[in-house]
Structures are given as C-alpha cells and as structure tokens.
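Archive entry. Fields below.
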Amino acid sequence: MSEVPQAKGDSPPGSCPIEPAFRVPVTAPCLLMIFGASGDLTARKLVPALFDLHREGLLPGPFAVLGVSRTPMTDASFRDRLRTAAAEFGAGPFDAAAWDAFAPMIFYHPADVSDPGAFGPLSTRASVLCETSAIPGNVVFYAAVAPKSYAPLVRAIASAGLADPSGAMPGYRRIIIEKPFGEDLESARSLAADVTAVFRESQVYRIDHYLGKETVQNMLVFRFANGIFEPLWNRNYIEHVQITVAESIGVEGRGDYYEGTGAVRDMVQNHLLQLLALVAMEPPVSLSADDVRDEKRKVLHAIEPTPLGELGRACVRGQYTAGSSAGKPVPGYRAEKHVAPGSLAETFAAFRFTIDNWRWGGVPFYLRTGKRMGRALSEIAIRFRPAPTLLFGDTACGQMASNWLVINVSPDEGIYLRFSAKAPGPEVCIRPVEFAFNYHETFGARVPSPYSRLLLDAMHGDATLFPRMDSVEAAWALLDPFLSRWKADPGADLWMYEAGSDGPREADSLFEGNTEGWRSR
Ligand code: BG6
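PREDICTED_STRUCTURE:
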C-alpha cells in the first residue's frame, strides 16, 4: 500500500513532510545530565537516540550531555565508549564524521550521588559547563539509575539546590524518571511524595518508551482522525482484544534487575497497560497533555478490579527453561547471571481484564508478555464479532476467517485488517485475505527510536506522551492484589515454559474456551 495522493481541498502536498520524522528542532539550549551514565540504557538507547537527533539537526543549540556515575572515566574515555555503542546500537550505518561533530558535546563526571559530598563538585561542573557552552540554565535530569536510587537521587538534586521547584532560577529544570515507578501502589505513592517534595508535577516526566514508538503514537491518529473505525470500536462489534509484547531475547545480563522486578512490574504495569489505555480510551477533548492523560486515567480506572477469589483465573505467569533461540541452544532463566538457582521470578505474564464502562462492558482484554518467546512480536490485535448468520457455513469449502484488525507495533510496523474473500472458481471457496499498511513501504522512512522522540518532547516541555501519576497509580492499584498474592505464595500461578516456545500452555486457560485462544501468527 502506498501513500494516497492528496485530494483537491486537502492541505497542500508538502505541508506536512513525513521526513524527517521530527519537524520541530528544540530552540532553547539545554544541558542533559544523565545519572547512571555508565549503564546499558545510556549506551544502548539514550546516546544513539541523541546522536540520531543530532544527525537530523534537531538538537538544541547549544546542547551538552553530562554523564554522571560512579565508574571512573574521563570525558575522552566516556566518548570512546559511547562511540562504540552508537556504532553498534544506532540506526543505519555509522556516520563517523557526524559522530566527530557530536562527541565534543559529551562530558563525564564521576560521582557517587549517594555521597552527600559529591553534589558540590558536580554542581560546580554543571555550572561551568553551562557557562562555557552558553547554556543559560535549562537542565533536564535523566534518572537512568536503578529504581531504588530514584528517591535518593532526587533528594541529592534538591540538596544541591538544582531542582528549582519555585521556578525562580533562569531557564527550566525537568526530570525524566525511568520505569518502573515504584514496585506497588504504596511504594509508588511514597516515591511520588519524595519527587513532589522536590519538583513540581509539571517538571516530572515519567518515561514509558512504548509511548514514543511511532506505531503507538499512531493509535490516536488511527482511531480519531478516521471516521470509519470509531463506530465499530465498542462492545457491539469487538469480541475481544489481545495485546502481546513477546521478546525473543532473555534477560540479557539484567538478572539482578529481573530478580527484584519480574515481567509484571517490568512490562505489564507500564507498557502493556499504557497500550490498553490507548486502545480503550475515549476521544480526548483536545490533544493537550492533560486532556489526553485525563482519558487514559479514566479508562485505567474503569478496569474492573479482579475479585480476590478470581486472581488465579485471571493471570498466568511463567519462567523460561533452557531451550533454543534463533536455532541456538540458550540457558534457562535460573542459569542466567545474577539469578538465584531456585528463583520464582516471572519472565512471562498474561492477564485477562475487563473494562466496566459503556463502550467496553463484557469485552475481555488479554495481555501477554514474555522473554525468550519463539518470536519477537509486539502487536495489538482486535477481534471482531462474527457475522450474525453462518450463510456460508454448510456450503463453503476453505476456511472462514475471523475478522482481525492488527496493529503491528514491532517489527514490520504497520496495520492490517483480515477478512474473508471468495477464491476465484466455480465453488464458494473462502480464504482469509488482508488489507495491509506497512510504514516502511508507505513512507520509506526508517522508524525513529522512541527515545529520540521522548527526549525531544521533554526538552520541548511537552508531557503528552509521559504517563501522569494518576495513571501510574491506577495501574498499580489493578496489579496490587496479584502482587500481594505472590508475596504470600511466591510460586502461585507460575509455570515453566521452554525458551523458544509461545510461553506456558496454561496461558490459554485465560480464554476459558471462548475463542481460539492466543493468536500465533
Ligand atoms: C524495557 C524493559 O522497558 O522494555 C525490558 O525493561 C524490555 O525488559 C524492553 O526488554 C522492551 O522494549 P522494546 O522496545 O525492545 O520492545
């Protein structure tokens, strides 16, 4: 499918170019201070995303990155390390000349921010950097540290006088905090209290990188810029919704993080429930950050709490055992680095929820995520109700297809609609066929990294794509009863599945025999 030429009366061709993906460079100079700069997130995601923005000419001018972590490094050795990472994890072929122009904007300061004495020299370094780089005080702090360090980090920023909650300092101060935000409702509230003791809500950007993905952003456009889908988007036409985020990778050296977190806190509380909110929310009154986030909060709040007696029937967890990935043998989770031999942490989780409102009453939403699954695939799949009479039931040969609308979040970003068609010939032979839209084929552009978009939005001061605290709380409130159940009985609802499979077979039980079960396309 290709881009359709614009009709007379539409906005003129070229008025909304599709390349580059971000059309608005940030104009205000900015210093980005990354805490946890020696970690994986900085190397694999943040710096490649910033380098991309640099190549697209979208970074502010002047701009500087100040990496902070305990590892002893100089500016030069930090830059070398990031160069290797940008070459490995960046999009497209590595552009050495562009890197050479970008690297001088990167600096490093070794500091243990839990040490009260460390912030004095750090804030002096930041001021000097702002002065020499002509950055008049605009600072974004990025908390890329372990979740347990968020609160101490925020307190340290405050005690160094860098947070500016009253807005008296020149420029802006904003903080980006990685997920998971808390480990249950109570700890999330307590972290929120620590953060808001230092920053105003408008300064806080809780990042969920799924919301920066093009395909996820397109959800609102797909639903609300087209008249044809919205009338079908409700319990009258939709039988159920499946949201899958399946990864073929394992825990990738992050065993210590996964041991304390597990798939429910790592993926479901944030990414999957945010996807559900976008599928199910009502149209916002406007695209302002608060109007969009009001609707997301409302729909998350409308998800029916699972009754205590039903918890074991509404969720299945799993943990991968040894198996294979891409044809190679891989170890089980318990044999991964920093994982306890008898660990009961889940690497797979599947839930069934229902939303108690007029649009969705009675429509199940199935959510599933897992590591070391057979295939990496993130999709939102909507299954429509069948035709009311089986007109072709007796006579048809071939196969009647269910009607599915599938939004491929990744890979093969796109959308397709599956329906039945008559195959040519004298008999009524029915085959499933598809209308398909693919981003790459249509727009030709590569899909930008979600981190580029979100970093840019934070520098712009646009919080639309960042979850607000009320939806973070609503998501925890929903999961809390399950978390308490597993705290009391750590092995409950947990099944083993072989690496390279579709997860534990027990996850099919969530459908209670109502449909064909999980999609396996
Ligand atoms: C992160 C999780 O938030 O998302 C990881 O912490 C996971 O465990 C990752 O692998 C998946 O993101 P993506 O964009 O690769 O689907």
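CURATOR_NOTE: Residues 280 and 299 are 7 Å apart (CA to CA).
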